[in-house]
């Protein structure tokens, strides 16, 4: 009858002592890495239902094998123009709810030494810096580590912001 | 935590809840040995189990309480103090139990010497008078007061025979709860009031073993899981049905039909397991009311009717707090103090009545009290101060609508904040809690007679019937409970869309409904500017009703109705207005379930002509229109525009000319249960022979009349620059330029006078009427106010400036009051007041200031120089009330 459920720790953080595995995804021109432990699946987003009055970065919801998944348009979240090609999506669990991050394409799985992770460059666009948890230098490319918790908190808080804004206006 | 402990905790907390209720009953009915026995047994069980499980602190506490109760069983008199003490012991036991639950089996440190010694002292104290315990009177043997007739048996003989005859025991009642019900065993002892019985649904009484075998305890989680699975099953069924609709294969259609039926039955059965009597949510109320009554020094009786009305436990959980809050409110604000009640000719004991019943897929819960009722004037004043509505809006608002302001945030009308309620954070929370589960709340009230809150809640939240509609290319589910009807608008049909100030309105039978495009409301389709006739010409409108607000939403198509399984929105989207959840349709697509209450609110904010203007919209309007007035434009006779101040128009009706009757040769109309005179605005207004014609309804005081015109044109907001026209038409007040067009402003007061003057005249000698001096620079306001005051039985002398007023006061005697605008051309209202107060002959005359909201700052200054009261400029009822109060005389009805 214990009412307290232990808070789900960022499992990636827990394992960050030596090697972390990342799934790389491309959003616009930029390569991002998601800790593999967080990625449940990769799917093609189809028949997304728009949610009226939702903030722009929420693309809508869709039915993924009986579960309703909230889709986050990563390009919009990062203030990039909408993509033209067919997008992909990464399925993620966050506080017991299913989310899908819409990205341009999924790359490969990389095992990276956590010690080589560097802090965000100081001149990174603050909107990006808010969701990035550091940088890895790869050969010929930079990979920003996507902090999924922050991404989803931000997507959610937009509603609250919008709502609060509306209230203030009235 | 082991099973034994868990079982103990569940049982004990249920027992304690029952003990709470029983104790309060016992206090009121101390001679009822049955109730006392119940409580005693409950406490005894707790004591026994605690000792067994090894919780000494609890055991000793229960023991002390038991000892005291035992004294009562022996017949010692029961006092409120003693019951209070036992109640606080029960509170302490609950506290300890909570700790035991949290720590999985250990009692908190410390001891309860304080309570135990009090209990022991009380046990000794009640013992002290040592009145011999009146032995529980054995049922006195009834005697027959006449000699026996031949063939009759003496009563005691009969009695003996009855006792010896073997019959099936009547108690416990064999009526077993449905097997599916997960409720714990029903208590067997017969309760004095049947309606309270259901409150004991969770009671564990010792003698109920026979019934116990028929019900089992199931963990709530299991039921939840069952429900989820059934929901999935319903979904799959719906998908299969959808497929079957497209293919015509009779072979599996039969099995599918069978599957569908079984699924439906299963769904119903599982839903039933979640049903609980609403009495469970009321269980704590008797105790709360009792404590409140003590605290507030009131006498309160709580009556419960329909406690066995069942509803989904999820819903039950959601309404517990709102209900408690409302009952507290009734006890605190609703009911008066005993002396006030006595003075008002009521019994000192206030009554709070809770009742629940089913009504078409909903449960209606009413909380009523017989207290003072809501204070209309005060709510209006508060609404005004908070900018929820303008004076003009308030003036024409029916009371029922004014009452609804109490559900707005920050509007507490309690004169003082008590620690019970009155902070103004209550009723709006109640409303939003109820609306979040698709419920509504409304209030009825009569001054001096009490108030009734009516809550309407859905039976269940998990599966709801919904209408699937399409708008802006997306499909949406509208909960069927809010859908009144579907209307297809066609040119020439009865249902036509008219435009009021660019807001479309649907004329539906006798109502005018605001309508909005669903797509635009949801921000999915572009806002249509102006009147896109083509769009509205053949519109399909879903008429929805939320609370008392009815409105129409325009959709592109209506598909079908379906039992949808409500899936909560992701937490990130839960704050969204107008969307309450989502569901998966038969074709696998997710669609949004729209929230009717949210739609209503936003529809009202959007449509200028909404039946009930939303408080947001109105507030903004109120600030903007301090200096402006709303005018209703219409045509009557000629093509020229005519206008009346919208504030004077109570309603706009489509008059069916066939309904006009004649009394004394004059046209009248039966309107809302009364007979009202009907006038045509002028000679040229078309006299339609059949069909309908627009009619404005004016109400002035209790006098209601209809004014027939040719066409309603628009509502405009304009700064009214009235030029008095020296016309020979008495019905014309003057002319003004509105929206660039010369417009005649008609004199409503003139029509009211004509309508009532000739036909319903009561002659009143003018000397008997209180005399007023009205001072206002604006001829428009003077012309507006003077007839109104006249109509309310005052004789009015109007003047335009302070100087003129003083001159009048100097030369004429006998003014009973002065009604003055604060802004005057030569000397302002303050100077006038100071001058009046300085003149010994007239210094006693009350002065009522008319002020706009901005002037309110100056009010303090006004009082200092001698204003008697200050009334908002357009608050006609406020003015009349103030006059009544300060002239000490009521106007004599003209």
From TrEMBL, chain A:
* A Pfam cross-reference name: CheW
Name the domain of life. Answer: Bacteria
Where do the CheW-like domain residues begin and end? Answer: 19-157
Segments passing through the bilayer = none
Database matches in Gene3D superfamilies: CheA-289, Domain 4, SH3 Domains
Which InterPro entries does this chain map to? CheW, CheW-like_dom_sf, CheW-lke_dom
Tell me which PANTHER family the record gives. Answer: CHEMOTAXIS PROTEIN CHEW (PTHR22617:SF23), CHEMOTAXIS SENSOR HISTIDINE KINASE-RELATED (PTHR22617)
| Name of the protein this chain belongs to | Chemotaxis protein CheW
Originating organism: Xanthobacter aminoxidans
């Amino acid at each position: 009858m214990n009412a307290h459920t232990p808070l789900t720790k960022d499992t990636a953080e827990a394992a960050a002592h030596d090697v972390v595995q990342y799934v790389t995804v491309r959003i616009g021109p930029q390569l991002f890495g998601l800790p593999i432990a967080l990625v449940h699946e990769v799917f093609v987003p189809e028949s997304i239902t728009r949610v009226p009055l939702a903030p722009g970065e929420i693309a809508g919801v869709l039915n993924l094998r009986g579960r309703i998944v909230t889709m986050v348009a990563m390009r919009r979240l990062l203030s990039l123009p909408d993509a033209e090609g067919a997008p992909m999506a990464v399925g993620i669990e966050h506080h017991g709810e299913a989310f899908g991050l819409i990205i341009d394409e999924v790359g490969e799985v990389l095992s990276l030494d956590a010690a080589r992770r560097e802090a965000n460059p100081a001149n990174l666009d603050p909107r990006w810096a808010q969701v990035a948890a550091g940088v890895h230098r790869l050969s010929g490319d930079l990979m920003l580590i996507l902090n999924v918790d922050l991404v989803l908190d931000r997507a959610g808080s937009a509603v609250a912001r919008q709502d609060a804004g509306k209230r203030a206006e009235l | 935590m082991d099973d034994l402990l868990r079982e103990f905790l569940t049982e004990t907390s249920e027992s304690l809840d029952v003990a709470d209720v029983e104790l309060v009953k016992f206090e009121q009915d101390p001679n009822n040995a049955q109730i006392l026995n119940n409580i005693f047994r409950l406490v005894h069980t707790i004591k026994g189990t605690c000792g067994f499980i090894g919780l000494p602190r609890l055991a000793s506490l229960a023991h002390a309480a038991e000892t005291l109760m035992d004294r009562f069983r022996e017949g010692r008199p029961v006092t409120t103090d003693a019951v209070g003490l036992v109640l606080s012991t029960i509170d302490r036991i609950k506290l300890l139990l909570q700790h035991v639950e949290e720590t999985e089996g250990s009692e908190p440190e410390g001891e309860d010497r304080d309570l135990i010694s009090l209990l022991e002292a009380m046990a000794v104290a009640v013992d002290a008078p040592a009145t011999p315990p009146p032995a529980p009177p054995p049922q006195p043997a009834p005697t027959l007061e006449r000699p026996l007739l031949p063939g009759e048996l003496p009563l005691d003989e009969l009695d003996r025979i009855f006792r010896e005859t073997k019959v099936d025991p009547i108690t416990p009642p064999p009526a077993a709860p449905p097997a599916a019900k997960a409720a714990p065993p029903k208590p067997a002892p017969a309760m004095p009031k049947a309606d309270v019985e259901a409150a004991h649904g969770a009671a564990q009484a010792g003698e109920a073993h026979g019934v116990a075998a028929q019900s089992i305890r199931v963990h709530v989680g299991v039921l939840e899981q069952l429900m989820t699975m059934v929901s999935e099953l319903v979904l799959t069924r719906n998908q299969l049905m959808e497929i079957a609709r497209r293919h015509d294969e009779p072979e599996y259609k039969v099995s599918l039909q069978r599957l569908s039926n079984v699924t439906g039955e299963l769904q119903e059965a599982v839903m039933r397991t979640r049903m609980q009597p609403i009495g469970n949510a009321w269980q704590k109320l008797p105790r709360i009311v009792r404590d409140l009554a003590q605290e507030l020094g009131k006498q309160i009786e709580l009556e419960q009717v329909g406690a066995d009305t069942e509803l989904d436990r999820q819903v039950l959980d959601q309404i517990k707090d709102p209900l408690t809050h409302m009952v507290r409110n009734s006890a605190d604000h609703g009911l008066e103090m005993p002396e006030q009640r006595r003075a008002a000719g009521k019994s000192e004991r206030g009554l709070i009545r809770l009742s629940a019943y089913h009504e078409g897929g909903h449960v209606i819960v009413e909380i009523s009290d017989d207290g003072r009722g809501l204070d209309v004037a005060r709510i209006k004043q508060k609404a005004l101060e908070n900018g929820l509505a303008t004076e003009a809006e308030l003036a024409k608002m029916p009371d029922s609508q004014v009452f609804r302001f109490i559900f707005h945030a920050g509007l507490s009308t309690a004169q003082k904040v008590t620690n019970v309620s009155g902070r103004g954070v209550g009723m709006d929370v109640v409303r939003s809690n109820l609306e979040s589960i698709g419920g509504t709340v409304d209030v009825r009230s009569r001054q001096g007679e009490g108030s009734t809150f009516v809550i309407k809640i859905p039976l269940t939240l998990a599966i709801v019937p919904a209408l699937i509609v399409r708008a802006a290319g997306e499909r949406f589910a509208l909960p069927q409970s809010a859908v009144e009807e579907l209307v297809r608008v066609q040119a020439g049909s009865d249902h036509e869309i008219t435009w009021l100030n660019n807001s479309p309105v649907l004329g539906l039978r006798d109502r005018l409904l605001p309508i909005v495009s669903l797509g635009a409301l949801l921000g999915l389709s572009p806002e249509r500017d102006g009147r896109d006739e083509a769009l509205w010409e053949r519109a399909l409108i879903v008429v929805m009703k939320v609370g008392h607000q009815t409105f129409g939403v325009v959709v592109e198509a209506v598909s079908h109705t379906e039992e949808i399984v409500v899936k909560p929105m992701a937490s990130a989207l839960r704050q969204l207005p107008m969307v309450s959840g989502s569901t998966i349709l038969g074709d696998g697509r997710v669609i949004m379930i729209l929230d009717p209450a949210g739609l209503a609110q936003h529809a009202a904010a959007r449509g200028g002509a909404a039946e009930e203007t939303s408080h947001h919209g109105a507030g903004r309007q109120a600030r903007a229109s301090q200096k402006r007035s709303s005018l209703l434009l219409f045509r009557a006779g000629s093509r020229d525009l005519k206008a009346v101040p919208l504030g004077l128009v109570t309603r706009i009706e489509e008059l069916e000319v066939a309904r006009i009757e004649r009394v004394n040769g004059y046209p009248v109309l039966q309107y809302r249960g009364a007979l009202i005179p009907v006038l045509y605005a002028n000679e040229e207004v078309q006299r339609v022979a059949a069909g309908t014609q627009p009619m404005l309804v004016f109400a002035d005081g209790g006098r209601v009349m209809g004014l027939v015109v040719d066409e309603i044109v628009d509502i405009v907001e304009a700064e009214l620059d009235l030029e008095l026209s020296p016309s020979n038409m008495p019905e014309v007040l003057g002319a003004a330029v509105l929206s660039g067009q010369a417009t005649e402003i008609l004199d409503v007061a003139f029509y009211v006078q004509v309508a009532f003057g000739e036909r319903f005249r009561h002659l009143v000698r003018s000397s008997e009427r209180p005399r007023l001096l009205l001072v206002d620079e604006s001829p428009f306001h003077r012309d507006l106010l003077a007839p109104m005051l006249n109509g309310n039985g005052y004789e009015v002398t109007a003047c335009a400036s302070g100087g003129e007023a003083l001159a009048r006061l100097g030369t004429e005697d006998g003014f009973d009051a002065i009604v003055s605008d604060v802004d005057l051309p030569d000397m302002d209202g303050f100077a006038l007041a100071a001058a009046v107060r300085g003149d010994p002959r007239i210094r006693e005359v009350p002065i009522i200031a008319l002020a706009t909201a901005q002037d309110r700052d100056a009010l303090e200054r006004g009082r200092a120089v001698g204003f008697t009261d200050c009334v908002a400029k357009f608050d006609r009822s406020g003015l009349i009330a103030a006059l009544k109060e300060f002239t000490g005389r009521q106007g004599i009805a003209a």
